């Protein structure tokens, strides 16, 4: 089943618990952590993730856009995140870090910026529970989807299937009604949507509609149901 993860980057940060409640049908809540160094924007850190984890029953999908994830990522697991994504461009030892995240009890995920190729990381894929392909340059919500990323999504799906891995393939950035079908058709199965969900009049309905679009496109592409 296609998973839709609304990004609270597009929510009202003064009302995070209510905003989490507004998307209760979501599979995961996507939490963008930015440190003003890895990306030119600053959002939130461990204490807010801790509070949010207590405030909602929706599991947290923490996307760390920070330097030194080797040092900080384990703290997000301890704060209550169910999935922690680090950027490979920032990680000193991605294998060790993925193993540490898993050992602490969360799903381990690795993200690639648009200019980072997947091919050098083929051998690392079994260490991961999810691979995130950025479809915008990380840092801000509401940017235009980069359709030049579609071939990378497709090649990644082929690698996952070639190795028979149970690895989720997430896309993040500009995912909306106009772009989600192309992502699903290329092989993505976890979809982050910020403005497309929180900018909608009815966020819960926007999630349902996006999921339906993704599932139809996935079925048509013949990737089948993986989870
Ligand atoms: C961007 C963030 C995204 C962002 C997506 O750096 O990683 O998660 O919230 O927002 P939209 O869906 O509006 O592009
Ligand atoms: Zn994100």
Automatic annotation (TrEMBL):
Coiled coil: none
Known cofactor(s): Co(2+); a divalent metal cation; Mn(2+); Fe(2+)
Gene behind this protein: rpe
UniProt protein name: Ribulose-phosphate 3-epimerase
UniProt GO MF annotations: D-ribulose-phosphate 3-epimerase activity; metal ion binding
GO BP, sorted A to Z: pentose catabolic process; pentose-phosphate shunt
Listed pathway(s): Carbohydrate degradation
Family: Belongs to the ribulose-phosphate 3-epimerase family.
Pfam families documented for this protein: Ribul_P_3_epim (PF00834)
UniProt KW keywords: Carbohydrate metabolism, Cobalt, Isomerase, Manganese, Metal-binding, Zinc
Catalytic residues (UniProt): 32, 172
PROSITE patterns (alphabetical): RIBUL_P_3_EPIMER_1, RIBUL_P_3_EPIMER_2
EC nos: 5.1.3.1
InterPro entries the UniProt entry points to: Aldolase_TIM, Ribul_P_3_epim, Ribul_P_3_epim-like, RibuloseP-bd_barrel
GO cellular component, one term: cytoplasm
Source organism, top-level taxon: Bacteria
Function according to Swiss-Prot or TrEMBL: Catalyzes the reversible epimerization of D-ribulose 5-phosphate to D-xylulose 5-phosphate.
Organism: Kitasatospora griseola (Streptomyces griseolosporeus)
EC main group: isomerase
Cofactor, how bound (note): Binds 1 divalent metal cation per subunit.
Residues binding a divalent metal cation, per UniProt: 30, 32, 63, 172
Annotated residues for binding of substrate: 7, 63, 139-142, 172-174, 194-195
Keyword Zinc assigned: yes
Catalyzed reactions per annotation: D-ribulose 5-phosphate = D-xylulose 5-phosphate
